[in-house]
Write a structure and sequence with these properties.
coiled coil; Colicin transporter; single chain; about 210 residues; 7 helices
């Protein structure tokens, strides 16, 4: 019984180890297949680029006559000939304008022009002036004074300013006090003494009736 339990535990250990090893092998297989897939995709992209290049080449070769016509008539291009290529170093040296001065064809030294300083240049000019005969300076013509310009004065009749008509002042707006005074005068004219007397008598009679 004890041996059976030990064998059972050992079986479980072997089973777990086999499962882990299988999972590891599967992960390796997946990584390998993924790398293979990336390589195939790169090959597909390269094949598409080659196909595009070949299609462009075929289209250009199909239109070669048109391209030659454009090159000769419009752009004036010409194909390179044998005279456009150099055969050896000697022709290259002659092409650059260098004369062979040894087995290595070393170029000629570069000559640099020297610029004299200001003191030396002034001394050289003084020496040249001393050697050359003195020459009298040519007379300089003085400019003449300009002639006076007369300005015609305008006539008084033409320069007389035009008279402007005075603008009429707008009528002032009537004040409210003046308006009220006028209304009171109008009421006084409408209500004369007779009318006021009749109104007083009617008021007195109505007061008597109310007292009775």
């Amino acid at each position: 019984m004890i041996a059976l339990k030990r064998l059972q535990s050992l079986f479980w250990v072997l089973f777990v180890a086999f499962g882990a090893l299988s999972a590891y092998l599967v992960s390796l297989k997946v990584a390998t297949e993924r790398n293979e897939l990336m390589r195939v995709r790169a090959q597909i992209a390269a094949a598409r680029a080659d196909i595009r290049y070949l299609e462009t080449e075929f289209a250009a070769r199909a239109n070669m006559r048109q391209l030659e016509r454009w090159a000769s008539q419009d752009f004036h291009y010409t194909a390179l000939g044998a005279e456009n290529y150099l055969s050896d170093e000697r022709q290259l040296a002659h092409l650059d304008g260098l004369q062979p001065n040894g087995p290595d064809y070393a170029p000629q030294p570069v000559l640099v022009a020297m610029i004299e300083s200001g003191d030396r240049a002034q001394a050289a000019l003084l020496e040249q002036g001393a050697e050359s005969p003195a020459v009298a300076p040519a007379p300089v013509a003085q400019p003449k004074a300009p002639a006076p310009v007369t300005i015609a004065k305008p006539d008084k009749a033409e320069a007389a300013p035009a008279r402007l008509a005075k603008a009429t002042k707008p009528a002032r707006a009537e004040s409210p006090a003046r308006k009220a005074e006028r209304m009171a005068m109008l009421d006084a004219q409408l209500l004369d003494s007779n009318t006021l007397g009749e109104l007083g008598r009617k008021a007195a009679s109505e007061g008597r009736r109310s007292i009775r």
